[in-house]
Amino acid sequence: MNIDDLEWQSRGLGGYPPVLVDLLMEQGDVELLVRAASRGAWSCARAAARQLCKTAEFERALGVLEPFVELGWEPARWAAADIVLQSGRVQQALERVRPDDVGSASEHVCRDFAELLVKAGQVDEAITVLTPHLDRGWLLSVLVELTEGQNRDERVLELLAPKAERARNARGEERWNLEASNAQDLQAQVLERAGLVDEAVRVLGADIAADRFLVQNTLTAYAELLQRNDRMEELRELGTGEHAHVGLPYYARALEDRGRTDEAETVLRRFIAADEWGRFRWPLIELLGRQGRLEEAVEVGRPTFDHHDACLLESVIHLLAEAGCFDEALTILDERDADFIDEHPSWFHTNRIGLLGEAGRYEEALAHAKTLPTDLYGLTSSTAWILEQSGRVEEALDLLRADADVEAWEAAALLVRHGRADEAIDSMPSIADLRAASRWG
């Protein structure tokens, strides 16, 4: 194990990805995670440490992380400090990671240190650590997130005010690349959580009415604010005015939630009829789906199925599949012409195999898979899933293991799902070998 291996794991979720770690955690046996951690699997080490902390085994959790800390892996150093904090040794935890000079520390270090300070109850110091970096929008979001429920809203609003003012003036000054373009959204968020909903609506609404904002996320934040606080009149204005492309779905959902479904459907259909881009079809499809009107939902989406842009084919198929209407989804898929299939071969065929499997039509799925080129992306995994669902686990394992393009964790995950977690861990190659075999190495 070396730093390059760890960076590879972190960068591309290589080796033991979250889906495998979650399956191992479901086994309820932390020893499986500890064993994987001892082989250099960082994701398993982190998960094992968290599980051990839940049973107050703090020293053992630190022991799991220690090899990673000694190697100089920064995420492990911060995770270890958090464990020390959980064990009640507050100052020792902070001293483990306190920057020599907070003023010159990187933004990411300041973020991590501020988070630890808040956990230690030192909220004011955390704010001080973050303050020099608040021209960066993502750290402004961190400030708001870390101070929620900490009785510091007045202080946070003081820090946000000049950033929000810069954001609302940026368009007029043609400063399109302002990093803290989210300052207005965050200001409204803190006003709302401080109980000043009217002020939040007034300020953000005035900015939007005067086009004094930079990004669409500000419109989204305003729509969500209005929806959460039952401000139907303002939401109607946003949803049916010049910003309908963002606001209308929120207005329609608010109408539906208040039992005014017919009004929601009517306004959506009116805008769909006047919109050449089809931007409002999906909110109507969702509304119809929630009412069980799936045939109507399909017809709303159908005009987009052959579009390159704003195509709702995949979304409609997922909607039908979630409702258990697998045969209907297959019918729509099989309506695609040869040109569509040639343009989207992997998507079409793996979805067809998956839908046949969900419908319990395993032999049909396997027969279809045999007609396809063996190098089709995703074919091996899809076929293995069908074999597994039909009880042919060993055949599925053999298929996964025989394909050099299939990552080792897929076979391991199958083993875990069938109660063979020890075998899964033992069968995983070393991190170095996994990295060497990966196309992302």
Helix-strand layout with pairing:
Layout lengths: L2 H10 L5 H9 L3 H9 L3 H13 L3 H13 L3 H13 L3 H8 L9 H13 L3 H8 L6 H10 L6 H18 L12 H11 L3 H13 L6 H13 L3 H9 L3 H14 L3 H13 L7 H10 L3 H8 L11 H10 L3 H9 L3 H6 L1 H14 L3 H9 L8 H11 L3 H10 L5 H10 L3 H7 L3 H7 L4
Helix pairs in contact: 2-27, 3-4, 4-5, 4-6, 5-6, 6-7, 8-9, 10-12, 11-12, 12-13, 12-14, 13-14, 14-16, 15-16, 16-17, 17-18, 18-19, 20-21, 21-23, 23-24, 23-25, 24-25, 25-26, 26-27, 27-28
Can you give keywords for this protein?
single chain, 441 residues, mainly alpha, 29 helices, 70% helix, 0% strand
Summary of the model, kept short:
The chain is built from 29 helices and no strands. By secondary structure, the chain is mainly α. The mean pLDDT is 95.
Task: Spell out the helices and strands N to C.
Answer: HHHHHHHHHHHHHHHHHHHHHHHHHHHHH
How would you state the average pLDDT, rounded?
A: 95
User: What characteristic shape results from the CA principal axes?
Assistant: flat
Count of DSSP H/I helices: 29
The level of helicity is 55-70%
Distance between the ends = 14 Å
Quickly give the structural class: mainly alpha
> Tally of extended strands?
0
The unreliable regions are: none
What value does the Rg take, in angstroms?
Answer: 27 Å
From the structure provided, what is the oligomeric state, counting identical versus distinct chains?
A: single chain
Residues in β-strands, percent: under 5%
Largest sheet: none
